[in-house]
TrEMBL record:
InterPro entries: CbiX-like, Sirohydro_Cobaltochel/CbiX. This is Sirohydrochlorin chelatase. The keyword Lyase applies. It comes from the Bacteria. GO terms for molecular function: lyase activity; metal ion binding. Keywords: Lyase, Metal-binding. CDD domains: CbiX_SirB_C, CbiX_SirB_N. Gene3D superfamilies: 3.40.50.1400. Signal peptide: none annotated. Pfam families: CbiX (PF01903).
Length: 244
């Protein structure tokens, strides 16, 4: 493998982009490939096209593409493949190998538990696990599965909600839970500090009941371990193909 390109979502808030860059710098230490670069899907630079052109012009022909995404939704299924196809049309001699998103890895559930335990000192209240949401039903179902796993682990009520698309919506679900519970722990199932998190903070500040906002996932060490594992799985599958 000649190079690795890590693809982040990108944010208008620079803090979120810096969090991604710092995370990838730690991941790079675990990967024995000399050329490792980053790219963003939107809202930040460099773009996928810019990064790919840079490393291809420097000689890369086999490239491991690492989407740093929570689930396989539209960005993974449509946007990244379209970007890579456009690059492939310009540089047909180049091969791309794409690793999978974090998905339902057990360490992602452990990370949710960690974020809850940072704020929840005793077994009280309800937990609201909030994802970005999607028009694709797959990530909606996956977040609901994570909620069930967390509920089983903690033996307390855990409710899923979504910020942009998917039901139930965050605001409606938070208002409903405030009628039932005096204390609610809100866990943002988001990768970084961004506009969605700021919107959540604003809503929570105006809550009548005690609503405690936990930290977002924030590219934790658990996530580094999962990402490296996903990369190694993709590389191993290529070795098996060569030996077959």
């Amino acid at each position: 493998m000649d190079a690795v390109v890590y693809i982040g979502h990108g944010s208008r808030i620079m803090e979120g982009n810096n969090q991604f860059i710092a995370f990838i710098e730690e991941v790079k230490k675990e990967i024995n490939i000399s050329v490792q670069e980053i790219a963003f899907l939107e809202l930040a630079s460099p773009s996928i096209d810019e990064t790919m052109e840079k490393i291809i012009m420097a000689g890369a022909r086999e490239i491991l593409v690492v989407p740093v995404l929570l689930f396989a939704a539209a960005h993974f299924k449509r946007d990244i493949p379209e970007e890579l196809l456009a690059v492939k049309e310009r540089f047909p001699e180049v091969s791309f190998y794409v690793s999978k998103p974090f998905d339902l890895h057990p360490k992602m559930i452990d990370l949710v538990l960690k974020r809850i335990e940072e704020k929840r000192l005793k077994n009280d209240g309800a937990i609201l696990l909030v994802g970005r949401g999607s028009s694709d039903p797959e990530p909606i179902g996956k977040l609901k599965e994570i909620s069930k796993h967390v509920q089983q682990k903690l033996d307390c009520p855990v409710y899923p909600a979504f910020l942009t698309a998917g039901q139930p919506g965050f605001i409606d679900e938070l208002e409903k839970l405030q009628l039932e519970y005096n204390k609610i722990y809100v866990v943002p199932y988001l990768l970084f500090t961004g506009r969605l998190l700021k919107r959540m903070e604003s809503k929570i500040e105006n809550s009548e009941k005690e609503v405690i906002l936990c930290h977002p996932l924030k590219y934790d060490c658990f996530m580094k371990e999962v990402l490296v594992e996903k990369m190694e799985e993709q590389l191993m599958s290529l070795v098996k193909e060569c030996l077959a």
